Amino acid sequence: MSTEAGAFPRNGPAYRRSVAITYDQALRDRIRGHLGGHQRRTVIDPTKRHAAVAVVLVDSEAGEDRVDPADVDDWIDGRPMGDGLDGRMVDVSGGAAFFLCRRASRLRAHAAQWALPGGRLDAGETAIDAALRELDEEVGVSLPESSVLGLLDDYPTRSGYVITPVVIWGGGRLDPKPAPDEVVAVYRVGLHQLQREDSPRFVSIAESPRPVVQIPLGNDLIHAPTGAVLLQLRWLCLEGRHDPVDELEQPLFAWK
Fold it and tell me: What are the protein's UniProt keywords (predicted)?
């Protein structure tokens, strides 16, 4: 695949932002089928540590997120947002959704960033084991291995990890209880938000020939690695597209 920004797949048909996706058995079967028919790309790199993230699919209600549960001004901590953005994840819920976490600002690594529940694999763990454990530890949601629908492609990060995304069917709304030392708030973001007309976005940086991917959600932009995972969630799970995302670049702030 070409590494020039203009060569990456752009938006398909224009999708209306307001059409929520029904959370039902048909969606579960469709996503499981797309994952089962995908030849997953794996990354083996002994110089990187292995991590996993939980892509948890849940139900949500439109309008339940009109008040941001996090103290956004404190979370942003004076950082310029640009593009008229204010960092708030509002008006994104409705229908089938995924959990998105706002990380605590005092963490040593990747503080105050958007993330999916996840972390490093412990000794002897599989990616599925780690994703389910981290989901329980960070978000307070315990789910069995039978809830796993499949795996997305591995994504190698600039900060020294290979991330395996594990797609999990929550079976309803669930009741997240975020661990305050790690997660400020957990949001239900409707899957239809991934199909916004202005998504995905690709920008160039001088430090890399690869395009940086941006996924607009609410009043913010989600960058890789989380942005790359969410883009494949759209392309593969919702649309049945097998386009790779592992060559999409991260912004400089995520290289550390």
Answer: Hydrolase, Magnesium, Manganese, Metal-binding
- The DSSP secondary structure of 134-189, one letter per residue, reads HHHHHH-----GGGEEEE---EE-TTSEEEEEEEEE-SS-------TTTEEEEEEE
d(CA 127, CA 119): 10
Q: What CA–CA distance (Å, rounded) separates 239 from 167?
A: 15
Give the integer Cα–Cα distance in Å for 237 and 29: 10
* Dihedral angle sign, alpha carbons of residues 170, 173, 178, 182: positive
**In contact, 185 and 59? CB cutoff 8 Å:** no
In whole angstroms, give the CA distance from residue 126 to residue 12.
Answer: 35
Tokens encoding 228: 């790359």
Q: Are 40 and 151 in contact (CB under 8 A)?
A: yes
pLDDT in tens, 120-164: 999 999 999 999 999 999 999 999 999 999 999 999 999 999 999
Structure confidence by residue, pLDDT tens digits, 159-214: 999 999 999 999 999 999 999 888 988 999 999 999 999 999 999 999 999 999 99
In order of their start, the domains of the chain are 25-66+87-247 (3.90.79.10)
pLDDT band at 239 (very low <50, low <70, confident <90, very high): very high
